[in-house]
Amino acid sequence: MPPQNAHLDPLDTLQATFGFSSLRPGQDSVVQAVMAGKDTLAIMPTGGGKSLCYQLPALCRPGLTLVVSPLIALMKDQVDALEQRGIPAVMINSTLTAEEHRERLRALRQQTCRILYVAPERFAQDSFMSLLAETPISLIAIDEAHCLSQWGHDFRPDYLRLGRVIEQLGHPQTIALTATATRQVREDILNHLRLRDPAVIISGFARDNLTFRTTPCDTQQEKLLRLHQLIREWKTGIIYCSTRKKVMTVFGDLKEHGINAIAYHAGLTDAEREYAQNQFINREADIAVATNAFGMGIDRADVRFVAHYEIPGSVEAYYQEAGRAGRDGRPAHCELLFNHADLRTQEYFFEGSNPGYNTIADIYTWLRRHSDPDTHTIEATIDEIADSLRIKNTMGISSAIATLVHAGAIQRYDIPGKTARGTRICHPDLPATRLGIDREHLREKETRDHAKIDTVTQYAYSHTCRQQWILDYFGEPDPQPCGRCDICLPPDAASYPALEGEPLLTVRKALSGIARASRRRSDGTWEAIFGRNKIMQMLRGVQSPAIAHMTDLSTYGILKNLSENAIKALFRCLAKAGCLATTGGDRPLLTLSRRGHDIMTGQTPATIPTTGWAGNITHSPMRGTTSSRTIDGIALGQPDRALYDLLSALRKNLAHEQGIPPYRIMTNETLLALSAVKPLTAEAAMPIKGIGPATAEKYLPHFLELIAEYLEG
Hints:
Distance between the termini: 77 Å
CATH topology of the largest domain: Rossmann fold
Family: Belongs to the helicase family. RecQ subfamily.
Largest sheet: 7 strands, parallel
Number of strands: 22
Low-confidence stretches: 1-6, 619-635
Structural class: alpha/beta
Number of domains: 5
InterPro entries: DEAD/DEAH_box_helicase_dom, DNA_helicase_ATP-dep_RecQ, Helicase_ATP-bd, Helicase_C-like, HRDC-like_sf, HRDC_dom, HRDC_dom_sf, P-loop_NTPase
CATH class of the largest domain: Alpha Beta
GO molecular function: 3'-5' DNA helicase activity; ATP binding; DNA binding; four-way junction helicase activity; hydrolase activity; metal ion binding
Helix content: 40-55%
CATH architecture of the largest domain: 3-Layer(aba) Sandwich
Domain Helicase C-terminal: 226-371
Number of helices: 27
Pfam family, one: RecQ_Zn_bind
Strand order of the largest sheet: 3-4-2-5-6-1-7
């Protein structure tokens, strides 16, 4: 351990204590700023080594480094790692026994502790603040600093007191660190902490070793199958679920299939969570199925994939959690398994995070009424309050209590030997009608929180490079496409078969139907009008009032030879191959992507998976025709009678202008083939009998133009 009275060279200490010969890019500038005595805000990507930016300076100069951390698991991981290196570090939190708590405070008084980890709520205790005031503090490090911003994705009211704490302690040098902070969040951090002439160091958000993908999934079974594929391919990973119930569902499935995994969620005891966490860290299990509390500070660099089983509540949360993959710098994979219905879970969380003013007032009144008349305290649990007030969403009670704490109406305190916390009424005579709670502020928070859900939904539906979209969101200047994600490189497209014959025609019919159910923009892209289910019903020729307005489309019933399950499988395969584009919103709409358009028009090979539909194709006549046709061995599918009539009229006009018989321009058989294939390029039309080089040059452009106009509606 370095002597307390010495200012040591950071690089020498880095080598001697941590075994590194140099700092990573980004770390060096942060450490330099801290060693120069400057208040600092460091924005570094997950896995960038934020903790070393305050641990190293802590060992290079005298005094205590006070680290504020939001999670007990994160504290424990870091304290254990420091102790293994012979560094006297301790943590103080609610999990300690009374004797352990006394020992830690004794070490603090005797100044034998170099780094102290505490949770932000600890500063509410006057005795603890008095002890800190007597302790020489050289640095305050606030980890996960985005927690103090209500614009952030993980707002924690206890973080709001940190600005006052810093002032009360004489404003020691302060460093705030986070991996995910938009411009608004950065401003909040600087303002709340009152940092003096701070060095703001942004190392960049890009993680060049990560590949991002969003996979649409219609069912839970699809999600589970995809997880098995990811595990086979990547071996080591974290699977994030939104709820405890879902964690246990996924964990149970993996266990049934003999996969060695751990489950981690807030419903486990502290001992159970610690055991599960240690299994993963010590590589006794390579798969962790967890809620979002898992992973902060986890010292396992070889996580090869992070999968989100459901959409998270914000882009910040997604990128922070995904960033736990590939911390060793090697290639890693991040995937969102997306089903629009999963947003209901986030809406539930949203409601729990935003109780209305009346709910807050009701909870305050209940606490006052049931508190001890002498001490004005109550030890009721969240569930007891919920049962008494008949509130279904218990999250709303926790949020209301946090709001009351922030307003100074109540205080929360630890109960020795219990995980539940007690509540003290600060002003027993204060009625609910006089609570100092800003209702407009509550409405603003509600608007912000809903915007976070809307934004992460936009990410899921986006057709922009995944990493480029994220970097743009965080305000990184001029982000470039990554070239690796499912948008830049549709997943496994090259490994799918290039379809021919009937499967190819089925795909083109489906894409043509989607085009007919869309609107063509002036820039050549497609605008969605209808949802997926209506388009599938239209293609199958379903007779339903819901699609009565679609029965006049020329593609109505064009795929009535496919069963309902087969056409669903076809659409899933089209989505996986990057052929479809979906808009966000409560009722997503479907249209063609650029790749789907190019496959429809024959400009791109139809490399598309065939699972679940190609083997189910049965031949069925289209309306207006009696049979499918084969010309020169090329299966053409059913001619489109309406298009054939238009092509015949065009041929008649051209023949009249040229003064030649219509058959000299194109035969009936060739027109039937054109109406079936609907080519939009000469290359796509050339295999059709009757279209040779002379015809292609002289007449074909007129027919291709008509087909394009027909498809555009």
